[in-house]
Design goal:
About 20% of the residues lie in helices and about 30% in strands. The protein has two helices and eleven strands. Strand 9 and strand 10 form a beta hairpin.
């Protein structure tokens, strides 16, 4: 009987040792490398959630790829909402710092994206709360780059950077 109690203690001790190693490693991975997120709403249709409310896409968010704020036009990114810091939004990068962009309903018709900022928009312009509502977004608000659709299975795919031709910047500032 004493041997069984000793065995049970050993298993409990091993479990807690593993638990106290696994939890910090998992949290660090999810915070610094990658995580998954469900996309809600119509703002990124048809790229994400093409079926509307019937099914939400689940995407892989790669934190590691933007650690140096290295984004390009056409990337789909997750960022902290400039209006509500408790909320994350997912949008497409339309313009980078120094680009001049023609806006859609913003207070100015043309905007030069300032240093350290990007211009983001949803693919479904009529249903998107984006830079046309709040202006250029600080790179510091970037959370991750969406790299793959993981769910539903029939939509498994890698997300390629794509910039609609009508949304290309008008001019790029000379470096």
């Amino acid at each position: 009987m004493a041997q069984a109690q000793g065995l049970g203690k050993r298993y409990v001790k091993a479990f807690f040792k593993g638990f106290f190693v696994a939890v910090p490693v998992t949290v660090t991975f999810l915070d610094r490398v990658a995580c998954v997120a469900r996309v809600e709403g119509a703002s990124m249709q048809p790229s994400l959630n093409p079926g509307g409310r019937q099914a939400s896409d689940v995407v892989l968010l790669n934190h590691w790829s933007i650690r140096n704020y290295d984004v390009q036009r056409g990337d789909i990114v997750s960022l902290v909402s400039p209006r509500n810091p408790e909320q994350k939004i997912i949008k497409r990068v339309i313009a980078l710092e120094g680009d001049i962009i023609k806006t859609i309903g913003y207070k100015k018709k043309y905007v030069k994206v300032p240093h350290g900022h990007i211009w983001v928009e949803g693919d479904h312009h009529g249903h998107s709360f984006d830079s046309n509502a709040f202006g250029p977004v600080s790179l510091g608000l970037l959370h991750a780059r969406a790299t793959h659709i993981l769910w539903p299975p029939q939509r498994w795919q890698k997300l390629q950077p794509m910039l609609p031709p009508e949304r290309r910047p008008l001019q790029r500032e000379q470096e």
